[in-house]
Amino acid sequence: MNFVAGIAGAAIILFARFITAVRAVWQGIEPVQRQRVYFANHVSHGDFILLWTVLPDRMRRRTRPVAGADYWLKSPLRRFIGRDVFNAVLIDRNRESRTDDPIAQMAEALDSGASLIVFPEGTRNETDARLLPFKSGIYHLAKARPEVDLVPVWIDNLNRVMPKGEFVPVPLICTVTFGAPLHVGADEAKDAFIARAEQALLALSPDTRSNTQ
Amino acid sequence: MTAPHPDLIMLLAGLAAILVVASVAGFLLQRRLSPDGSSAVIENLNDRIKAWWVMIVLMGIALLFGRIGVVLLFGFASFAALREFVTLTDTRRGDHWAVAAAFFVVLPYQYYLIFIDWYGMYSIFIPVYAFLLLPIVAALRGDTDRFLVRVAEVQWALMICVFCVSHVPALLTLQIPGFEGRNLLLIAFLVVVVQSSDVLQYVWGKLLGRTKIAPHLSPSKTVEGFIGGAASATLLGAALSWMTPFTPIQAGALSLVIVLMGFFGGLVMSAIKRDRGVKDWGHLIAGHGGFIDRLDSVIFSAPIFFHLVRYWWSAT
Fold first, then answer.
1. Looking at B64, B86, B114, which one is the last position of a domain?
2. Interface contact B103, partner A, CB < 8 A
3. Of A137, A178, B241, B281, which has the highest C-beta tally within 10 A?
């Protein structure tokens, strides 16, 4: 299974590069092996694939996306891709029915040495707004493991590659921009930290950059 | 796979020899003037030399495999160029199907037509059929906002990145009496003249460049660089007449046309980049910007070169 998963992973990376010629822009940090939580904007199912693709090989093997169990356990194929290929940390998004605490699951994955990819908007952004308001999970995770770098990552153009409701991707060049890491202050309030994290992510979007130039 | 023509092997060996000299010179310059990578000009020069190595190796491999190799190579070049072009356009959701059709139907079919040598179809497929059908696909989606601009962008992307580029492998289909089996040399001639014109203009411009030709479009282009580069590339083309069906004078005249079209094509492509507010089309090749940045001179010269040769020299 591991071998098949390796092949499938390589095929997914090749396909992602073929369609998007994706390029990493390391703006605030260097691509070095350090434990990190990457938090990114979320417009498509391809988001974490692109982020995962641009990470150097060694870092990629230790980086796990955090994803909704409801989506990734639905069919055997999704289960294979989610669990075996991406080694995702699957969390239950339903507050009422869940038995595991997502923050505890993520902290546990961090404690075992993994880096994480999270989408603090909580769901795919299908609106015209550039970013949906963040859920509070990112704050609780930052509080639970304050020493880990929180790295904002802006994924650009993927919404044009595959707009909502389309099933054929159009080849377009995408970029993945990594910003400077954040840490929660010792007595920083939840809302203040979340606003700061949103600003840090928005600042990486090319629209913001071209407006300020 | 047939044995490549001896002239072709000589040409590739000659280019490799020139690149070896360039690589050594680049290495020495870097050691003396920019050991810590601080001189942008020298770093850029070395990146360019590396990219030329990649290009000549790719060309060599494709040429060894004959027509199928060349068609596939330029098919992928078209794909990469189209991907860069469409990225910079204003296309949106309403164009999704038209753009997808451009990539996955029009592009492969155009190269298939070249491969099976159906001149009557590949010379009109994009200007007529794709021209009429793609706006219909876009109109069916019902989004009329900036419709003409969006449709025109897709048309231009296809003409530039697919139609024009596909005229390079189309040179293989020409039937020139007394030149059978050597058509690959026409491609080599076109590419060598275009590329050396770019390099020579760069060199002459660095040596003597004073007067800017188009300060708004392309600040690095100078009158001195253009004249020196065009004249020396024309002479080089005339000197390469041994590998073509042309006399030295004809080869020189065709080279001049190639060089002029390449130069003005470069200006047009710069104007598009300015309009879109970017410096390079992409970042695929270190030191060269995107694919289109390397192809832009070939894009404008290939169809004209093709039709001139077809009209005056081809039997069909």
1. B64
2. yes
3. B281
